[in-house]
Amino acid sequence: YAKDNGRNNFQFFTPEMNARVSERLALENNLRQAIARNELFLHYQPQFDLQTGELTGCEALVRWQHPELGLIPPSRFIPVAEDSGLILPLGHWVLREACRQAKAWQDAGLRPIPVAVNLSAVQFRQARLATMIADVLAESGLAPRWLELELTESMLMEDGERHTTALADLKALGVGLALDDFGTGYSSLSYLKRFDLDTLKIDRSFVQSLPDDSEDAALTTAIIGIARQFGLKTVAEGVETEAQRAFLAAQGCTLMQGFLLARPMAGAELAELLETVPA
Ligand code: C2E
Ligand code: MG
Ligand code: MG
Ligand code: MG
Predict the structure, then answer these.
(1) Is the ipTM of this complex over 0.85?
(2) Fewer CB atoms near the end CB (10 Å): N or C, the chain?
(3) Which pLDDT tens digit goes with each residue over 75-88?
């Protein structure tokens, strides 16, 4: 089809593409106001120990309640925030809010659990990221061991030298480091040697077709085995069925996160779960 259009066809933007571009611009303008107007909030998805069933952690996931457009998922506004630079104030807000909530749970007498926060590659390129995080921790009063930062493989491949230092600076704060969506990017086993990570998160795309798909089963088993050799915890993402849970538990995966046991929920709901699920 593209070939038939020939060289002299300058119709680069289809009406659908134009619509998408103006939607992005509208989102970008709205996102600028969203933080100040308190339209952003966090949901927390629990993580459970695969051997004991205990609730042992959670991941903070940002949501945007737009006054006219309704609830907008992060897959739609995070890319806009990254392209426009708005991810820096947004990411700062997410960190502050997650640390505040984790400390509030502890102050309410609940059993402490770590909260994981997703970092964008744009934040990771910030020279003062470690200082910013140290300030957020100090301001919230949360001990660093209760914060885990989720990174992606694409961040680590950009510039090895600089990132080894950046990760070491983060690690020196005493926070945990997790590699998100493991296996989907330009996965390199050398990351495991070069960077002092604590957790590998096995991407949902591998978990989805377990245990029947023999290739995904082999990959998952291999990731869990390598992680164990390196002393890393594994978190299986997107566990939706009992068969997936049983397979992952049998392979020795450490934690699971998925709709089978819990969806992302408000902080108050997670507090209730923490009270009812015994330690
Ligand atoms: P992620 O970090 O890999 O987060 C896991 C995503 O999987 C979440 O989607 C979660 O709701 C979803 N999920 C969990 N269990 C299941 C399941 O059993 N089935 C299915 N179908 N999905 C499941 P969500 O909240 O829509 O977030 C999507 C992505 O947006 C995140 O993927 C992350 O990359 C990004 N994101 C979310 N919050 C933030 C944030 O505060 N900062 C940054 N930079 N990115 C964020
Ligand atoms: Mg994540
Ligand atoms: Mg993930
Ligand atoms: Mg992701």
Answers:
(1) yes
(2) N
(3) 999 999 999 999 99
